[in-house]
Amino acid sequence: MIKSKLEQVGIFNDNLNKVKPSPIHSFDEKVSDIPNILKLTIGEPDFSVPQHIKDAALAAISADDSHYSVSAGKKTLRQAASDFLNDRYGLDYDPAEEIITTVGATEGLYTLLAAILNPDDKILIPTPAYPVYAEMTRINGGHPVFIDVSEDKFVLTPDHLREIIATEDHIKAIIITNPSNPTGVTYTAEQLKDLADVVRETNILIISDEIYSELSYDAPHVSMASILPEQTIVINGVSKSHAMTGYRIGILAGPAALMKKINMVHGFVIMTPSNPAMAAATEAFKSAESKDDTLWMKEQYKKRRDYLVEKMTKLGFEMATPSGAFYMFAKIPVDLNQNDVEFAYDLVDRQQLAVVPGSGFGPGGAGYVRISYAASLDMLETAMNRLESYCEEKRTVKIL
Ligand SMILES: Cc1ncc(COP(=O)(O)O)c(C=O)c1O
């Protein structure tokens, strides 16, 4: 192991002093080596990438598609992404100037924040939220402002937003996750319109993270960009819709003038995305076959969701209806330990079942656990049997 004095002499960016590791990954790593552990922790589709999509990546490799592309990504991919956004959500983006191909939604988010944040700038984050938002904001010198929406069925209301806008200065943007990680809640067109009416009166940018847009179970997905395109940048990609997390292809779509600057930052950060991955994502976005692949996956997730809602409700857990993504954010029943971190570790100790403590997702998350149902029905059945045994044991112990 090489020892370096540099860590001690302040070599790092001071912003890092405020940054914490991802609570999801920290918890997952801590429990991963426990024998017989069953993990419903990470949001990772358990399906294989469809063969025709793999074939597209292989064809690019065989054709020696091995040189730098352009930073915004190949034209064919941007055209396919533009058509996809138009076909599914009625959005209208010029592939030449309004779409950038990113290294997963993650790099898109990072690049976007790096491009817009000045010191003192604030990013509004309705919570419970995907923890990455706050940490990326801090790395880039900004300040996250959390808006606890747990009292409003996990949906940001226009009144709540108005209240925050009236009290905070230097607000640069708000991040709306629709469908939501960790709650699985989705926004209706009406709810989005009401929020857009508030934002329209301001100079605030809406960062609309729609990476789970294809996994909306109870109603068609509505994109914020169909309502307020001039103040919205959409984040999307193929990671969740096509089970392609490891290919690392995402997209940013927004007004040309904004995308130009963002693309400049993006080019310095990544140069260009990977060609075989772009070939695969092009196939995923454009082929009719891949629309069916996603519909099939969505059907499987829906069955799992329905199964979990029924079982967990019987065990006394309450949750906002998880109508999208593949997460359930469940309130720990009052007769069990209300400290979500202790609860989660105790569940691991006694039943080797891992679910993520809700407090890691920010204000409003304490007392909840997040369960990912990107796992087979067999796994979910075993998980529910373990959870049932845990509840029985704990409840018996309490009565005695
Ligand atoms: C809300 C949200 N946004 C973005 C991402 C990252 O997506 P990608 O794998 O495309 O970087 C995730 C992954 O879990 C997520 O839950």
From TrEMBL:
<dbReference type="GO" id="GO:0008483">
    <property type="term" value="F:transaminase activity"/>
</dbReference>
<dbReference type="GO" id="GO:0030170">
    <property type="term" value="F:pyridoxal phosphate binding"/>
</dbReference>
<comment type="similarity">
    <text>Belongs to the class-I pyridoxal-phosphate-dependent aminotransferase family.</text>
</comment>
<dbReference type="InterPro" id="IPR015424">
    <property type="entry name" value="PyrdxlP-dep_Trfase"/>
</dbReference>
<keyword id="KW-0032">Aminotransferase</keyword>
<protein>
    <recommendedName>
        <fullName>Aminotransferase</fullName>
        <ecNumber>2.6.1.-</ecNumber>
    </recommendedName>
</protein>
<keyword id="KW-0808">Transferase</keyword>
<dbReference type="InterPro" id="IPR050596">
    <property type="entry name" value="AspAT/PAT-like"/>
</dbReference>
<feature type="domain" description="Aminotransferase class I/classII large">
    <location>
        <begin position="36"/>
        <end position="387"/>
    </location>
</feature>
<dbReference type="InterPro" id="IPR004839">
    <property type="entry name" value="Aminotransferase_I/II_large"/>
</dbReference>
<dbReference type="InterPro" id="IPR004838">
    <property type="entry name" value="NHTrfase_class1_PyrdxlP-BS"/>
</dbReference>
<keyword id="KW-0663">Pyridoxal phosphate</keyword>
<dbReference type="InterPro" id="IPR015422">
    <property type="entry name" value="PyrdxlP-dep_Trfase_small"/>
</dbReference>
<dbReference type="Pfam" id="PF00155">
    <property type="entry name" value="Aminotran_1_2"/>
</dbReference>
<dbReference type="GO" id="GO:0006520">
    <property type="term" value="P:amino acid metabolic process"/>
</dbReference>
<dbReference type="InterPro" id="IPR015421">
    <property type="entry name" value="PyrdxlP-dep_Trfase_major"/>
</dbReference>
